[in-house]
Design goal:
With 345 residues, the chain is of the alpha+beta class. It is built from 11 helices and 13 strands.
Length: 345
């Protein structure tokens, strides 16, 4: 008989908790939600929408994705969530669905899952208690799961060498609303957005804004690694580069021209995320195999015209109320990111 004694998030957390092994997680481990702040969402950029609405939800609520739109009854994402969460969300309102991020146990300046974007929301320590985790990414139908109280996934991930190093993260699912005025310690932006409309919009958020050193990739290094996604995408990156270099802002500018297929630019971003991480990420990237060619790629990243698989790039929905001031408890959140710089208004 189905469990209907509590809310969908509570049922999902209970279902996953019963299937976990391992010790409790370090309660200061950060969860990050990576995204591209300058991509367009209904006539606004994502960062503008976050500033306007103050809330962050999944594709089920927004019907917007960086890949295939499978967040609907019977779609891939619907089936994956039904399996992972024991059917807890099968009949739930789309706005109750979890959002996706990563457990950043390596504490990388660029966030836990750069595959999904150059910038990220750093969630509060308190949010960890309503997260579930899996390794590998849910697109691979994982069988290993965790919750804050019981989780061995960081050891599992560290012992693994995935085919594509951009998949080398512990996926996180945040159950319940993610409000910027309550659940976010900081928005962390790529340095390339300094002095841009992204920085201007970020000052309207009800949480602090910080900067990481930035993703950067020279065209020479891009072409040297052309086999990663295929020469077609490496050459597209070379064409849009400015002064022989790619940054997230340059790719975002190219996306807004409307002259390039978003899926092609997504693959250009993958080059930048993999081969041009923030400077202090370089050593950890090499130790994780980020500069070696994969023996295979995930379904959506094939260069042979395969159908796209849904990517989790949650975007915000309107927030039921004006964003408030940052709660006092956020000042007590742990943050060990020495390579991340605070933005001072």
């Amino acid at each position: 008989m189905a469990d209907v004694s509590s809310s969908p998030p509570e049922r999902a957390l209970r279902y996953v908790a019963a299937r976990c092994v391992g010790p409790a997680l370090d309660p200061t481990l950060p969860v990050t939600l990576n995204f591209h702040p300058d991509r367009q969402v209904g006539g606004r950029t994502v960062i503008e929408a976050l500033a306007d609405d103050g809330r962050y939800l999944s594709q089920f609520a927004t019907a917007i994705s960086n890949g295939g739109l499978t967040a609907h009854p019977g779609g891939d994402r619907w089936r994956w969530e039904s399996r992972m969460f024991g059917g807890a969300y099968d009949d739930a309102d789309p706005h109750e669905r979890p959002v996706y991020g990563a457990l950043d146990h390596r504490r990388r300046p660029g966030g836990g899952a750069a595959r999904f974007g150059s910038s990220y929301l750093l969630l509060t320590d308190a949010t960890l208690a309503r997260c579930t985790f899996c390794y590998p990414d849910s697109v691979f139908a994982p069988t290993s799961f965790g919750v804050a109280a019981t989780c061995d996934l960081t050891d599992l991930a560290d012992a693994d060498t995935p085919a594509d190093p951009l998949d080398h993260y512990v996926e996180a699912h945040v159950h319940g609303p993610v409000r910027l005025d309550r659940d976010v310690t900081a928005l962390v932006l790529d340095a390339s957005y300094r002095g841009s409309p992204v920085e201007t919009a970020s000052r309207r958020l009800p949480c602090p804004v910080r900067w990481h050193p930035g993703f950067r990739l020279d065209v020479a290094d891009l072409r040297r690694n052309a086999a990663y996604r295929g020469p077609r995408y490496a050459e597209l990156g070379a064409r849009i580069a400015v002064h022989g270099r790619l940054t997230p802002r340059i790719i975002g500018d190219a996306a807004r021209t409307g002259r390039h297929d978003p899926q092609d630019l997504k693959r250009v971003w993958h080059y930048l995320a993999r081969f041009g991480p923030p400077a202090s990420d370089s050593n950890s990237a090499r130790s994780a195999g980020l500069h070696e060619h994969p023996t295979r790629v995930r379904h959506e990243d094939s260069v042979r015209g395969d159908p796209p698989v849904q990517r989790r790039q949650p975007v915000p929905e309107p927030f039921d109320g004006e964003p408030g001031h940052r709660p006092d408890h956020l000042a007590q959140e742990h943050d060990h990111r020495g390579d991340v710089e605070e933005l001072h208004p």
